[in-house]
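Re-run with default settings, no changes from the original entry. Doing this only to confirm the output is reproducible before filing.
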Amino acid sequence: MKRILVVDDSPAELFRLKEILNKHDFDVIEAFSGADGVTLAEEKKPDLIIIDLVMPGMNGFQVTRQISCSLQTQHIPIIIVSTKDQDINHSWGKQQGAKHYLVKPINETKLIEIIDQYLS
């Protein structure tokens, strides 16, 4: 079973993403802050990471950059999932190391399609 780390400070968003991922037989690890996301990425070595951008403390761009630059975690694909839908956010996310950028509310079919693309 593939393991996915979801980093989001919103309990509602975490619940929704976990519901979708569990339905598709993924093991889900949850982090409620960017710092916890970095720690769990290093400890658990998930197969993929889904990160929100807007979080207190360490934001999603900072988390993505830290995970992408670490020798321990740079191989893990990162998908940013955010309400921010401006071109600059998409571009900056990819410059920080994200493989893909999706806008909330999440389309379940599209999310699973993208995850499968990176985990196949």
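The domain at 3-119 is CATH 3.40.50.2300 (Rossmann fold). The chain has five helices and five strands.
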